[in-house]
Design brief:
CATH class of one domain: Alpha Beta
Helix content: 40-55%
CATH architecture of one domain: 3-Layer(aba) Sandwich
Bound molecules: nicotinamide-adenine-dinucleotide
Order of helices and strands: EEHEHEHEHEEEEEHHEHEHHEHHHH
Shape: globular
Number of strands: 13
Largest sheet: 7 strands, parallel
Distance between the termini: 13 Å
Strand content: 15-25%
Amino acid sequence: MVIKPKIRGFICTTAHPVGCAKNVQEQIDYVASHKTDVDGPKNVLVIGCSNGYGLASRITSAFGFNANTLGVMFEKEPTERRTASAGWYNTVAFEKAAAEKGLYAESLNVDAFSNEAKQDAIAKIKQNMGKVDLVVYSLGAPRRKDPNTGDIYSSTLKPIGEEVTRKNLNTDTREVSDITLEPANDDEIFNTVKVMGGEDWEMWMDALAEADVLAEGVKTTAYTYIGKDLTWPIYGGATIGKAKEDLDRAAKAISAKLEGSLGGKGYVSVLKALVTQSSSAIPVMPLYISALYKVMKEEGTHEGCIEQIFGLFYKEIYADGALNLDSTGRIRMEDNELKDSVQSKVADIWAKVNSDNLDELTDFSGYQNEFYRLFGFGFDDVDYDADVNPIV
Ligand code: NAD
């Protein structure tokens, strides 16, 4: 099959196995060439392991610290006529590279919100790793089925309180125009917290503790984004921000349980905005990220998933000495994004940008390249006219 990108709105419905493998290899190479001799995790569970920040966490664990990894993901398998989703191909490439290094790496393609996923993961941990010393929670999901009641919750991306009108970029048509987002009602806020809040993270940690598969001194982290004025009305101060606030509550509850018996700890880690399948679905974010990339690339402070997670592990979680925590107890990795100088340059671009000057004022081409690369497209040394077998 000759595989070309098929874009539908903010998703690409095809993925290229060779390109996805390149994407994974580039991240492995980054870690291999930057790692230092630091004591890190040895047995890691990554929930949401196949794309974005979760994939980078798995790669850093395995290729930075020689850790065994168990991953949980929700991906589409390939068929004769249809490609797999990118996360499937990423995971195949990751597992192959880890096996070549002699590391245990297995992945469960299941709904992480279910009780079965937790029980399957526990069985695999017992069988292959004994106990885990790091649990990364990196899900980006639009809906969640409560495993105990069967109720299904869907998240919404809406402001809270009053309607918000903001510049927005249609990444298909390259058109910049205002969109107005109606405020969420209480139900929508509640549902979003159910999906993207901390409840499921706590359920995972409770299940793992109960099954006695958490090692002494275990660490766990979930990922969040906060942002500043430009994105606040549609992110930090919106439904998704409420869900993310709930992670802070969950981190405290998890830490309270882990500290007592195991000397463990739960952290929320705040990461920078960048292009992933999840962030491209959030209104306003593609325009913000395009402007941010322009400014941060000019300043030489641009980072992708692997640089952020490598920094999180090597300079914070596994560094010698105390962590740099904010007043809420979160680890902050997005200082460069939030610097006043960066934010004010992004705000200047924001005020002036329109459909005609998009390429001149922002790094939309960089945004688009990165978006294509998420699905394995746009790598120089991949022959995209070649016939490839989608089944890997
Ligand atoms: P992503 O879309 O790249 O990856 C999401 C992962 O979740 C995939 O591995 C997918 O398979 C998995 N997943 C989704 N639903 C699942 C389910 N039901 N069961 C099992 N696995 C499932 O997302 P991302 O952007 O890397 O986001 C990961 C976390 O990082 C999120 O909490 C997000 O809010 C946070 N974050 C993202 C950004 C950003 O700009 N992208 C910034 C800061 C924090």
